[in-house]
Write a structure and sequence with these properties.
CATH superfamily: Penicillin V Acylase, Chain A
CATH class: Alpha Beta
Distance between the termini: 24 Å
Order of helices and strands: EEEEEEEEHHEEEEEHHHHHEEEHHHH
Largest sheet: 8 strands, antiparallel
Helix content: 25-40%
Shape: globular
Number of strands: 16
Structural class: alpha+beta
Oligomer: single chain
Length: about 425
């Protein structure tokens, strides 16, 4: 389960486009960031995505992807042209295909082969209609779903929602967010040719005038269980209430939000209603990675945690520059996985209640983040940016040491954790390296 947000230049404090996403997946599924350089492929070459092969064009864009380590595609990413995309699981009444393109595959393909948001919308629709969507998208769970996409560039943004090979799209005016439920009703710009007739023929509505995409196509039981409507309303309220003043810090705060859940103040909750999601509930996901992109005047800055739980993590800046020492390549995915797991073990100790006071750690984290925001804003040359990335990496290592020291000095006792929560995390911890 995930949440994706965008604020266009008419809604931000500095007239930039700010895009953010939390990727909520199974707690033991490493989410990694990799950088893939542009590639030249033979014309009409077919490539293997997660499950199927597809026809592709000759040359690709350079991309930065945040992805589950075992999936070919990505949960979120950006290319060197400034095209950024995040996708969401949605649950519809349409049939699920056993093996086709995952939404994450379509996301990566669009980033590799498109330069702008409008072209990406058309490309995803083309691939959807040609190959369909489907296949197991869960790590250990047999989870299959359809997809929605939030797609943006320097000038525009679109929401694209799908059900099987059907689709519907709307251009965004200022701010928007998507979650694990459909958001488009009667107000849309375009839709697939058979979308409305299909709904009428299946008895989901009586006429074109009666048609509502969400009302007709959504699987209400699965959507209710995901709490997507709740989270989407929360993020939209956050964006609307601050339209004109949205900045990077504000987007970080949204993605760290526990939506007023007091239980999460001690980092112990399994609620599906929080934007920074923690595992431990009967129906449970966890935020395994978070990304924010800042697009302004042709400049692209990517802020990533590269770790789970943004409420505990540091957002670090990255740029598309020649120096790539700060990135893992596609061939280094095992190293990226190992790094994610090392940090994850620290986070697990917090979730298990082995520390009661994180104020020292979070204050230090916040101070470093403020420094990084100021440094990134002033950065002019590639050399400046490399030094900032090095400083961020070193600072993160220091933060992890601080957190580790706090944990080691704390009384190791569980703080009002219920039996199911304890069992859940014992099971997850046993499985992290197995």
């Amino acid at each position: 389960m995930c949440d994706t947000l965008v604020a266009l230049s008419n809604a931000t404090k500095d007239n930039s486009v700010i895009f953010g996403k939390n990727s909520d997946r199974e707690p033991n599924e490493p989410q990694i960031m990799i950088r893939i350089p542009p590639k030249k492929r033979d014309e009409n070459k077919r490539i293997k995505c997660t499950y199927i092969k597809v026809d592709v064009e000759e040359n690709t864009n350079e991309v930065i992807l945040i992805k589950p380590h075992w999936i070919w595609g990505a949960e979120m990413g950006i290319n060197s042209k400034g095209l950024v995309i995040g996708n969401e699981a949605v649950f519809t009444k349409e049939k699920l295909e056993p093996k086709a393109l995952l939404g994450m595959d379509m996301l990566r393909l669009a980033l590799e082969y498109c330069d702008t948001a409008d072209k990406a919308v058309k490309y995803i629709i083309f691939m959807l209609e040609k190959y369909g969507q489907g296949g197991k998208a869960g790590y250990t769970q047999n989870l299959c779903y359809h997809n929605s996409f939030l797609i943006a560039d320097f000038k525009s943004a679109y929401v694209l929602e799908t059900a099987g090979k059907h689709w519907i799209v709307k251009q965004i005016d200022d701010v928007y967010s998507i979650s694990n439920s459909l958001t488009l009703y009667k107000d849309f710009d375009e839709c697939s040719s058979s979308l409305i007739d299909n709904a009428i023929n299946k008895g989901w509505c009586k006429s074109k005038e009666d048609f509502s995409f969400k009302a007709c196509y959504e699987d209400k039981l699965y959507s209710f269980a995901s709490k997507g409507d709740y989270r989407q309303k929360y993020t939209m309220d956050c964006l609307r209430n601050n339209t004109g003043n949205i900045d990077l810090s504000y987007m970080m705060n949204i993605l760290r939000s526990h939506c007023g859940d007091k239980k999460v103040g001690n980092y112990k909750s399994g609620s599906m209603k929080t934007i920074c999601m923690h595992g431990g509930g009967i129906i449970s996901s966890q935020t395994t990675g978070s990304m924010i992109t800042h697009l302004k005047d042709g400049n692209i800055t990517i802020w990533c945690t590269n770790t789970s739980l943004p409420c505990l993590s540091l957002y670090k800046p990255y740029w598309f520059i020649e120096n790539i020492e700060m990135f893992y390549s596609e061939e280094q995915q095992s190293e990226a996985v190992e790094y994610w797991k090392q940090v994850e073990m620290l986070h697990r100790k917090v979730l298990r209640g082995e520390i009661s006071d994180l104020s020292l750690y979070t204050a230090k984290r916040d101070d470093i983040e403020k420094q990084l925001l100021k440094m990134a804003e002033k950065a002019k040359s590639d050399e400046d940016k490399v030094e900032i990335m090095r400083f961020a990496k070193q600072s993160e290592q220091e933060l992890h040491k601080i957190l580790s020291d706090i944990i080691s000095k704390s009384e190791k006792k569980r703080l009002n954790l219920n039996l199911y929560y304890n069992w859940y995390w014992k099971k997850q911890n046993n499985g992290l390296y197995n």
